[in-house]
C-alpha cells in the first residue's frame, strides 16, 4: 500500500523542522527596566546606602525638608507673605500658647508681625534651597568646563586658568561673593534690585565656588587624557570638544558629584550668611538667613523662638546634606571598598 501522506505530516516532522524562535522570556528580555532596577538595587552603592544608618537618617531628613519646602503652599498653615491674612494682634505669640487677644495657637509661635514662624520657615527654605542648588549648578558648569579645557589642552591655557583659580583661592569665598554681589547691585538700577536680588545672589555664590570643581576635573582629565580610549578617539579624527564631552566627562563625574553634595551645604550656609548680613535675599523674599537676622533683634527681649527655630532648621539642613556628602565620598572611594 502506497503512503500518500505529505512528508511534513509524518510523525515527528514538526519536531525535526526549523527550531522555534527565541522566547520573549529569555535572559535578554528580562534585562529590561526590571532587570536594570534589580542591578541598581544590588550595586555596591545601594548596598552601602542601605547599611549606613548615617546615610539613611541624613537622606530622610533632607527628603523631609525638601518636600516641606516644595509643598509649602499646601503644607503651611498660613501664607506669611500675604498681608491680608496677617493679624498684628498675634505678634510675639509663644509656641503652643494661645494668644491673649485672639486666642489663636501656633506650633512654633509668631514673629513681630504676627506671621506664623512655622510657615515662614517652610517658605524661607524654598528660597535657601533654590539659591543653593542653582549656585552649585552654576559653579559646576563653570568649573567642569574650565577643568576639562585646562586638563585636556594644557600649556598656556592651563597655566592661565589655574593661576586665576589660585588667585581666587587666596580670598575667602564669602568675601568674593560679597564683592560680586556689591558690584552687580551697583550696576543694576535701583528700581530693579529687589526683583533680581535672588539671581544676583546665585551669581555671586556660583562665581565664588567654581575653583574646587575646576581643580578636581583638571586633575582627573589629565589622568584620562593619556589612556588608550582617548588616543583611539584622536586617531579616528574626533574633535577635542567631542572627546572631552563624550569620552572624558563621563569618567570624571564621580568626584564631581561628591563635591557638589558637600558644596550644596556650603552654598546654603553662604546664602544664609549673606542674607544675615543684609546683602542677600530681599525682605519681600526672606530666606532662612533673613529670618535669623530678624529673630536676632528679639533674642534678648525674650522672644527666643523667632531666632531659634529658623537657626535650628538651617543647622539640620546643612548638617544632613554634609553628612550625606561624606557618605557618598566614602562609598565612591575604591580604596575603602
Intertermini distance? 78 Å
Unreliable runs: 4-31
The SSE order reads HHHHHHHHHHHHHHH
Structural class of the secondary structure composition?
mainly alpha
By CATH reckoning, the class of the domain at 125-336 would read Mainly Alpha
**In what range is the share of β-strand residues?**
under 5%
Please tell me the overall pLDDT: 84
Q: Biggest sheet: strands, sense, closure? A: none
CATH topology of the domain at 125-336: MetI-like fold
Put simply, the count of helices is 15
Shape: globular
Please bin the fraction of helical residues.
Answer: 55-70%
Rg is: 29 Å
* Reported CATH architecture of the domain at 125-336: Orthogonal Bundle
Number of strands: 0
The CATH homology group name of the domain at 125-336 = MetI-like
Keywords: Cell membrane, Membrane, Transmembrane, Transmembrane helix, Transport
Main location: membrane
GO cellular component, one term: plasma membrane
Region (Disordered): 1-33
Written description of the protein model:
With 337 residues, this protein is mostly helical. It has a domain at 125-336: Orthogonal Bundle (MetI-like fold), CATH 1.10.3720.10. 64% of the residues lie in helices and 0% in strands. The chain has helices at residues 27-30, 33-41, 44-50, 53-70, 72-75, 117-153, 155-169, 173-187, 193-207, 211-225, 228-235, 240-248, 253-276, 288-296, 305-331. It is a multi-pass membrane protein.
Amino acid at each position: 500500500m502506497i503512503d500518500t501522506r505529505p512528508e511534513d505530516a509524518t510523525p515527528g516532522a514538526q519536531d525535526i523542522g526549523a527550531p522555534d524562535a527565541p522566547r520573549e522570556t529569555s535572559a535578554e528580555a528580562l534585562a529590561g527596566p526590571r532587570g536594570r532596577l534589580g542591578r541598581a538595587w544590588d550595586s555596591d552603592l545601594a548596598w552601602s546606602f542601605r547599611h549606613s544608618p548615617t546615610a539613611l537618617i541624613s537622606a530622610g531628613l533632607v527628603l523631609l525638608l525638601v518636600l516641606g519646602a516644595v509643598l509649602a503652599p499646601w503644607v503651611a498653615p498660613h501664607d506669611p507673605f500675604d498681608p491680608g491674612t496677617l493679624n498684628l494682634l498675634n505678634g510675639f505669640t509663644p509656641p503652643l500658647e494661645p494668644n491673649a487677644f485672639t486666642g489663636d495657637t501656633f506650633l512654633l509661635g509668631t514673629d513681630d508681625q504676627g506671621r506664623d514662624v512655622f510657615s515662614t520657615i517652610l517658605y524661607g527654605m524654598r528660597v535657601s534651597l533654590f539659591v543653593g542648588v542653582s549656585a552649585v549648578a552654576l559653579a559646576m558648569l563653570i568649573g567642569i568646563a574650565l577643568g576639562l579645557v585646562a586638563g585636556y589642552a594644557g600649556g598656556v591655557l592651563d597655566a592661565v586658568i589655574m593661576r586665576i583659580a589660585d588667585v581666587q583661592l587666596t580670598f575667602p569665598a564669602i568675601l568674593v561673593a560679597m564683592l560680586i554681589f556689591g558690584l552687580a547691585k551697583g550696576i543694576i538700577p535701583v528700581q530693579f534690585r529687589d526683583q533680581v536680588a535672588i539671581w544676583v545672589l546665585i551669581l555671586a555664590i556660583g562665581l565664588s565656588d567654581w575653583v574646587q570643581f575646576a581643580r578636581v576635573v583638571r586633575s582627573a582629565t589629565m589622568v584620562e587624557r593619556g589612556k588608550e580610549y582617548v588616543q583611539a578617539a584622536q586617531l579616528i579624527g574626533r574633535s577635542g570638544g567631542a572627546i572631552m564631552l563624550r569620552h572624558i566627562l563621563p569618567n570624571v563625574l564621580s568626584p564631581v558629584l561628591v563635591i557638589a553634595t558637600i558644596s550644596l551645604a556650603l552654598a546654603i550656609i553662604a546664602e544664609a550668611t549673606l542674607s544675615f548680613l543684609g546683602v542677600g535675599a530681599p525682605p519681600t523674599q526672606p530666606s532662612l538667613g533673613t529670618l535669623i537676622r530678624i529673630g536676632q533683634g528679639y533674642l534678648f527681649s525674650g522672644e527666643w523662638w523667632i531666632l531659634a527655630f529658623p537657626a535650628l532648621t538651617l543647622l539640620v539642613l546643612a548638617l544632613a546634606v554634609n553628612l550625606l556628602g561624606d557618605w557618598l565620598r566614602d562609598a565612591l572611594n575604591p580604596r575603602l571598598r
